[in-house]
Amino acid sequence: MDFRKDVLVIGQSGSGALQIVAGGEVRADYSLLGKYYGSSGTATVTGAGSKWVLTKNDTVGNDNTGLLRLGYNATLHISNQGLVAPEGGLSIGTYNSEEAYVSITTGGQLALFGEADDSIDEFLDLVAGTDAIRYWSTELNDWAHITEATYGDDYTLEYLTSGGLAGYTVLTVGTPTTPGDFNGDGLVNLADYTVWRDHFGATDESSIGFAGDGLAGVDLADYDLWKANFAAGDSGNIPPALVPEPSAMLLSLAALLGWGGLARRV
Length: 266
What we know:
Blueprint: E1 2-10, E2 15-20, E3 25-33, E4 40-46, E5 51-54, E6 67-70, E7 74-79, E8 83-86, E9 89-92, E10 100-105, E11 109-113, H1 120-124, E12 127-129, E13 133-137, E14 142-145, E15 155-159, E16 168-173, H2 190-199, H3 220-229, H4 248-256
Parallel strand pairs: 1-3, 2-4, 3-5, 3-6, 4-7, 5-8, 6-9, 7-10, 8-11, 9-12, 10-13
Antiparallel strand pairs: 11-16, 13-14, 15-16
């Protein structure tokens, strides 16, 4: 489903969240996460075809047209072929906020207008405010600043001269990960079940580099996704009988948290 709004504010005076998943698209002339002191804004863009596009509108008559601004306590998560493309630029933490980040994992793409594919430093010169763009490092099992990443292994930069993003430089972190590949090794197997079990109940998938359903929280819906994709890649020689089921403890916890046996979110 597509959504269009001239000005989109997420977290004006309280907490706000935006999720763009499953091929959804949001378009705006200007967007802001975390407008006032004490507020917070979070946006997640994940899944093939999922886009957040900000376009310049010269009829608006202000400097914010096409701009995506991360203000107070603001985090933008991009993963698994999700795309964010602010034609008017990206501004991070320009309100002297304590926390403002762009976090990119597993094939997430950030496109900024301008030719800046010679180096990551050149790309960061297109960003106003701070340069707080981080990626999920599987080596560290933690977030790291994008300047610590290795070109070709952890990320790529490409300046496009044709298509809908002509004139943009696209930063792509990692490669798209098969849903259920929770440890990012290219396989969906028993090792991923262990990762799911150990992180069950976490409130933010992106913060642990988790290739789940892209929605907030590691829960039974992510287990269903793993089970549906189990044996993808080289793990096909594992007998289905060895696929573990969620433990009674986890099922009880899920029921207490309101998931119950459905394990689905709407």
